Amino acid sequence: MKQLVRLFVVGVSVLMLANSCRTIYPSAEVNYLSGDEQTLTVRSVGVGNDKEKAIINAEQKVFDVLFFRGLPQSKQKIPMVGSNESEEKSKHKDYFDKFYDGRRHKTFVMSSIPMGKATKIKGGQKQIAVDVKVNLSALRNDLETFGVVRKFGY
Amino acid sequence: MNRIKVFLLAIISLFTTAVFAQNKAIDSGGQVVTVQPKIMVIPYTKEGEDLRTILEQDENKRIAIAKIKEGFDSRGFTTVDFVAKLKAAKDNNIFTSDNQTDIKTQIVEMSGADVYVQAEVIAERGQSGNSVKLILTAYECSTGNSLSNKVGESGRFYTDDFNKLSSKAVESCVDDFLNVMQAKFTDIVNNGKSIIIDISFSPESKYKMSSEVGEDGLPLSDVVEMWMEENAFKNNYHIQVTTDVKMIFDDVRIPLKDQSTGNNYNPNKFGLEMFKFFKKLGISIGRDVKGSTIYITIK
Predict the structure, then answer these.
(1) Residues B177, B52: one domain?
(2) How many domains does chain B have?
(3) Residues in contact with B3: Cβ distance below 8 Å, sequence separation at least 6, in sequence order
(4) What CA–CA distance (Å, rounded) separates B161 from B66?
(5) A1, B7, B276, B284: which has the fewest C-beta neighbours closer than 10 Å?
(6) What is the DSSP code string of B49-112?
(7) What is the mean predicted confidence (pLDDT) over B131-156?
């Protein structure tokens, strides 16, 4: 019996270790709503332990998509920074640490309006759809100023 | 006697410093600024259309061009003003032919532009409203390589304000257009700028492409290609044609920066390397550089 319990504990530990090593990529639930020359409005779905964290997650997903994927139908169809996000993030670690962890992304969010109430999903987390308006031209200037992307031209 | 010697030495040292030291007035402290491409926005013209009057007659085209330039300005990039160049060309009487296509080529050449953006504005009237379509294309002047292409639409509106429609058509696509262009510029930064190399022979030349040259006695065309293989940036080159009397490389990549010094690099410097190569072979050449095309004439 003791051996069975031991085996169970070891099995669970191995499973947990394997899970912790697996990279969890953010989803790209960001859809274009409208935009002009300088701004972009999208609907993004965020997930978090509470409503506030879910909203932050929704906002940050917008920037993830703009930086590393590009947004179809919008004027930013190609990624602003590059497709290889891990390489770009390590190359400009300081910038992205401040941007995401330091929540500097907020300075480019012109409005962030939750669409309805947060709903409970698997794992006790909450999910919410948010309409996010981004100051796109300021974001591009910022990326250029901090050398994350080159200025227009060679 | 000693005093005279010291005085003379001081004078000589002062003189040499003045001659060989870098001009302090322009000393940048070793900073190198990348030479940016010159971009000019021009209207599309059909065969036979008068380029000189087309802008003056059609305000929609003027608005479209102004809006496109505004797009470049918003990215902190200054374009060459087409209208100013057109006026300068008129004043200097550079137009030597009545053929409008030639005039366009002449203006592009005269401006020294590396890239030109062509804007075609199509105004449409319909029962369900009026609209303006815009075709934007960007080319490298020397090679004709396409840098970006986009079609913009204003959408249909019940209005006769074609100026506003032209403006909307530009707004619908200019950002996307510039993003694609920037992606191509990034490719140029990483993989080099494209130039053309045209090698031909002067009538009195004793050489042909099949002439055996160098220590190994290989045909000239092969020796040239082997050199190109080693000297084209990242081994990136393409031969358009090789005959006994000419050899054209329609796409040879050169770096934007000298890989050893970090200074700006240009077709003229690459031409100098070619000159050295031919000199080593004991072949005398004539060298002309026009924009991004190097013309080598073997004497």
Answers:
(1) yes
(2) 2
(3) none
(4) 17
(5) A1
(6) --HHHHHHH-HHHHHHHHHHHHHHHHTT-PPBPHHHHHHHHHHTT----S-HHHHHHHHHHHHT
(7) 91
Residue B184 sits in the same domain as residue B213: no
Rounded mean pLDDT of B208-232? 93
Residue B141 lies inside a defined structural domain of this protein: yes
- Per-residue pLDDT band at B114 (split at 50, 70, 90): confident
- In this structure, what are the phi and psi dihedrals at residue A153, rounded to the nearest 5 degrees? 115, -165
Residues B91 and B207 reside in one and the same domain: no
Contacts of B189 in chain A (CB under 8 A): 150, 154
Indicate whether B91 and B128 sit together in one domain. yes
Q: Is residue B182 part of a domain?
A: yes
Please give the Cα distance from B96 to A50 (Å, whole number): 74
Dihedral angle of Cα B63, B68, B71, B75, to the nearest 10 degrees: -140
Q: Given a cut of 70, is residue B103 above it in pLDDT? A: no
- Of B160, B190, B220, the last residue of a domain is B190
Residues of chain A with pLDDT below 50 are 21
State which residues form the domain around B135: 39-190
Mutate to test the interface with B, among A32, A36, A75 (most CBs of B within 10 A): A75
CB proximity B33 to A under 8 Å: no
Q: Which of residues 253-292 of B touch A (CB under 8 A)?
A: 256
Lowest pLDDT segment from B94-98, B132-136, B184-188: B94-98
Q: A6 vs chain B: nearest CA distance in angstroms? A: 56
Q: Letter for the amino acid at B195?
A: I
Contacts of A140 in chain B (CB under 8 A): 75
CATH number for the domain that contains residue B66: 3.40.50
Nearest to B37 among A140, A151, A153 (CB): A153
**Predicted local confidence at residue B85, as pLDDT:** 77
Instruction: Report the predicted TM-score, pTM, of the whole model to 2 decimal places.
Output: 0.79
Residue B254 lies in a domain: yes
